[in-house]
Amino acid sequence: MVGAAATVWPLVAQMNPDAATIAAGAPIQVDLTPIAEGQDIKVFWRGKPIYISHRTKKQIQEAQSVALSSLPDPQPDSARVKAGHDQWLVVIGICTHLGCIPIAHEGNYDGFFCPCHGSQYDSSGRIRQGPAPANLAVPPYAFLTDTKIQIG
Amino acid sequence: MSGPSDFQPSNPALKWIERRLPIFGLVHSSFVAYPTPRNLNYWWTFGAILSLMLALQILTGVILAMHYTPHADLAFKSVELIVRDVNYGWLLRNMHACGASMFFFAVYIHMFRGLYYGSYKEPREVLWILGVIIYLLMMATGFMGYVLPWGQMSFWGATVITNLFSAVPYFGESIVTLLWGGYSVGNPTLNRFFSLHYLLPFVIAGVVVLHIWALHVAGQNNPAGVEAKTEKDTVPFTPYATIKDAFGVSCFLIFFAWFIFYMPNYLGDADNYIPANPGVTPAHIVPEWYYLPFYAILRSIPNKLAGVVAMFSAIIILCFLPWLDSARTRSSKYRPLAKQFFWIFVVVCILLGYLGSQPPEGIYVIAGRILTVCYFAYFLIVLPLLARIETPRPVPNSIADDVLAKSKGRAATAASVVLALVVAGGLFAGSTQNAKAEEGGDTPPAQSWSFSGPFGKYDRGSLQRGLKVYKEVCSACHSLNYVAFRNLADPGGPGYSEAQAAAFASEYKIKDGPNDQGEMFERPGRTADYFPAPFPNEQAAAAANGGKAPPDLSLMAKARSYKRGFPQFVIDFFTQYQEQGPDYVDAILQGFEDKPPAGVTVPEGTYYNKYFPGHAIKMPKPLSDGQVTFDDGSPATVKQYAHDVTTFLMWAAEPHMEARKRIGMQVFFFLVVFAILMYFTKRKVWADAH
Fold it and tell me: Does the annotation mark A117 as catalytic?
């Protein structure tokens, strides 16, 4: 029994990401200075697109003022950005429905719109409308300086 | 497979083998002496058709694998090279790609036939469940096969389908990472899909053996749904069933050849001629047509987990069919209510397929929900209820009675059935075409092309002029990566000689090296070289063109399409209309307007184009009157340029089109004659059996 399980283990475990893939998934650093207010960039980390948005005052205002009870996946804006860096939204640009890439600055909520099945996210990357069950994920990241972040 | 055979070969060598391995007896008892009900109709020939399709898919697949490279950077190109450079590669690829669709088409008819005639009922439950397992394996194989060309739809289809598993509570994300072998769909995913796509057909073949074994134990069902009792009820498999199957198969091959030779892209998606790009999601991700009903069920449920569960349940529920429908009468022929509900169910499935191809919004979502309820209600409410309340009509005493009672007019029924089948097939399959929704672009006007229709050929003069337009205008920004100078001298191309192609090539500077000093150098082009790209890489191309790299033009004429709409796509099936791409490219080239219409503004750095989806195109107006001078006196107008360069791009996208249509005609002639001969042979063989 133990022998059988031990034999099967390598046969299944080989399917997980290999050493080179894991190594390539090491943290990356991104300089934020070139991103003007209202603009956003897309960087790739671990093969996933990461949106870094420099939010406008209006977008921040909208994200903070929405009533949490009206959200399908309630989360305050403060839990989705780093304290003191309200203007920077960093989210994984993968729709939580079935993995398409939402388009930034589209949809009814000043945030993201997924063209595949019509999910709409707000300026905090939270799901507002459509089949997606959860908010856009926030990747692990930290501010190294005011203008530089490390993702991963 | 049904017990020991009394077959004795007369040849001493065969006798020697038979004593040690009774294989001839097995074949004889299974496929020669095996008694089949004498009242089987043509719906029963789909078993043979499916066996043939499986064999064909394995054969063409093994050959394609000899030329294919399962690597994320090379897969798309290797498929293109198969189509362009391998002898008859285009034929093998078309056979394999269309073959998958035909395989599913046949399996759906086979399943509906089982459903209508109650072939799943006692004692054939295991036979039916084995069939469902084959169907599931087919779906997995088909899905992984679609990923291999590594186009946009391959990549995003793989992303969406593997993400279905992320709906599993707690373990979802780990399962998906395990499936991918990375943090997203990528090279490891492609590699394992290739491995499994090669393996699964052989697993299917194994289960098919079990399926046939179970069939030969229980015996075939038949339209009357009564078991064979006496000798009078049956005929031996050979020659009766063999010849009938041969006729059915040859008719099916005509249908198959229609796609292979004349409509190879009808069932595919234009987006899959764009190489996979993890950074851009196509506007509408649509699976292959054979998954559409289940895709519609998935999308009609607003909760992710529930949607995934519903989708899988829609297939798994088939396994329980023998117990859900407990009616004693097998055949729906004698069940007045069940018959009507069966046809309603067929319509529900087709409508679900249509909805699966539509964008998930508004009325489509509501209709999808209603039809999903209908789908499950058929199995969970209608069938169990009918078994209790329906009064079936009396069934014939025996198969022989059924045959005697049959009136004339069979040919008429058969003809109408075939016609209905073709229309339904075209309708259902064509719904994928409809999935190409355009956001705010005018429909391109249909142009007249020399290469359209079954006898279409490229206009040599047009190809030569188009090459000139490409060289003098388009090539400043757009690459043509898959076309080599040697292709200019290929048969079915612009009609240049080898020497002319060589002279054309020598005008180009090609980067080569490194030389003995380790340095790159430039040399004049040779015919083996490919058209050089205007920019060294995609980033350079994007930087020089306002942030968006001009796309490669090799496949442009096949990689673009527009919404055809109902009923146009059904008509397209019969008229062999395949020119959405050229119509679109031609329209774009002529669709620039200096001033957007009143009330329309396009963002800075973009230009207004009447036919571009969304109207704002990054490319400035490329052609203007008088820009290129033709030697043959053709008018130097944008209209002429657009027509010629589009013809050239169509040839670049499909250099072997003329061979495809020419061979197609020969194959058609052969198949039609063969089918007619088969029909009369079948009549002769069956003359004494009726």
Answer: yes
